[in-house]
Write a structure and sequence with these properties.
Blueprint lengths: L4 H31 L2 H27 L22 H26 L3 H33 L3 H8 L4
Helix pairs in contact: 1-2, 1-3, 2-5, 3-4, 4-5
Bound molecules: MU-OXO-diiron.
């Protein structure tokens, strides 16, 4: 059973959302890099790469299904200065919660259509989003602790060790 046009459209929108996430995180990485926080920058560059991989998995799925991938405009992230070092971390958490809601929306549609194949395919994203939100929440918590104890540079060097 080939996937429906509705699911195809939702996945095409999700490809855009994943690439927009990559763009957002690359922008955040550049904010930290310019401010001299190379560890935070490295961490967000790795996040940006992961988002491109998320988009690619969706692209591969549409290709496998014989459906057309439609790439659309990606909104530029805010190039304004962030309020402080914490703000991008808050934005990341809010953004990941938003992405989770989008993924759940596709799962709900797949369930409604009894499209079990897409539902199974989306399992990976459901798990990934739990992880993404947990990581974003943990980083925010770590930042707050580091800030309180004057150890932000220590956290920066720890983040810089991310593979
Ligand atoms: Fe692709 Fe960070 O969710």
């Amino acid at each position: 059973m080939q996937i429906s046009e509705k699911i195809t459209a939702l996945i095409n929108e999700q490809i855009n959302a994943e690439l927009a996430s990559a763009y957002l995180y690359q922008g955040i990485a550049e904010y930290y890099a310019f401010a001299g926080y190379v560890g935070f920058a490295k961490w967000f560059k790795a996040q940006a790469k992961e988002e491109v991989e998320h988009a690619e998995k969706f692209i591969d799925y549409l290709e496998e299904q014989g459906k057309k991938v439609l790439l659309s405009d990606i909104k530029a992230p805010s190039n304004e200065e962030y309020r402080d070092l914490r703000e991008p971390l808050e934005i990341q958490l809010t953004h990941e919660e938003h992405v989770t809601a989008l993924i759940y929306g596709i799962v709900a549609q797949a369930k409604e259509e009894r499209d079990y194949g897409t539902e199974r395919f989306l399992d990976w994203y459901v798990k990934e989003q739990v992880e993404e939100e947990a990581n974003a929440r943990a980083l925010l918590g770590e930042y707050d602790l580091a800030k309180e104890h004057g150890e932000v540079l220590h956290l920066d060097s720890k983040l810089g060790k991310r593979e």
